[in-house]
Amino acid sequence: MKGDLSDTTITVSLVSHGHHEPIAELVAQMLEQPRIAKIVLTLNVPQRLELPASDRLVVIHNEQPKGYGENHNQAFLHAVGRYFVVLNPDVSLTPDLFDALVACQKTCGAALVAPSVFASDGSRQDNWRQFPTVRSLVAKSLGRDTSIVSPAGDITYPDWVAGMCILFEVNAYKNLRGFDESYYLYYEDVDICVRAWLNGMTVAGCSHARLVHDGQRASHRNWRHLRWHLASMLRYFRKYHRALGAITKPDSNHLSQN
C-alpha cells in the first residue's frame, strides 16, 4: 500500500462467541494489512484459540457474556487511529475492503460507513435499510419488505446500516457515546444510526466496498434470540416513536453520484 497511513489507520473490534468461527484466520488476514493499527478480539465465552502473536492484537476474556454494544464499547477503549470498525467474526474479507471504506468516508465525510454485503452465493444482502416502522414490520411479516435500500451510485445514504461491518470515524463514535448498552442484542445498529442523524451526522453505504457474509437469522429459529429481538424492537419504538420525524438527510439522488 502506498501513501501515508498516519491519519487513516484503523482499530477493528471482533467478538467471538465460540461458534466455530474462523477467528484465527480472520485475525491473520487483518494483520497483513498495514492500515490496521490494532485488532481487539473479545472472547465472549470461554474458548481456546491458536492466535498469531502480535503487539497489534489485544485479546479480552469476558468473565460473563456481554451484549453486542457493551462488547464493542469495551473494545473502543483500546482504539488507536482515526477509524474504529465493528466486524462480525463470521465474514469473509475482500482484499480492498478497508481501503474502500476509508476512501468512501474521506469522500463523503460520513460518521458511519458500511460496505455492500453479499452472501457466498453472490446474492445481495439487505444491510442498508430504512428505519423500522410498525407499517414496514407488518409488510415484512407478509413478505412485502419495502424497507431495503438499493445502491444509488458509489455512495448511498440509507437510514441505517447493519452491524456486521461498520466503519466509524473515531470522534463520531466518541461523541455518540458508542452503542446503547441497554439493548442486549439486536437494534443497537439501528439505534446508533438514529442518534447519528439526530446529531447532524451522516450514515453512508459504499457500493465498491464489498464484504461476504451469510446471515444466520438466529431470531428466526431460536426462542431466546427471538425474545431479545422483540425486547429490542419495543425499546426502539418507545425511544424513537416521536423523534424520527426530526431527522433530515442529504438528497441521496444528488449526493450519491460521485
Plain-language structure description:
The chain is α/β, with parallel strands linked by helices. Helices cover 30% and strands 22% of the residues. The protein has eight helices and eleven strands. The protein has helices at residues 23-31, 68-76, 97-108, 134-141, 170-175, 188-198, 223-240, 252-255, and strands spanning 10-16, 36-43, 57-61, 83-87, 91-93, 112-118, 128-129, 155-156, 160-161, 165-169, 203-213. Helix 1 (23-31) links the parallel strand 1 and strand 2 (36-43).
Explain briefly what this protein structure is.
The protein is an alpha/beta fold and 258 residues long.
Mean model confidence by pLDDT: 88
Structural class: alpha/beta
Number of strands: 11
Shape: globular
Strand content: 15-25%
Any low-confidence stretches, pLDDT <50, length ≥5? 252-258
The radius of gyration over CA amounts to: 18 Å
Sheet with most strands: 9 strands, mixed
Question: How much helical structure, as a percent, in the residues?
Answer: 25-40%
The number of helical segments is 8
Order of helices and strands: EHEEHEEHEEHEEEHHEHH
Distance between the termini: 23 Å
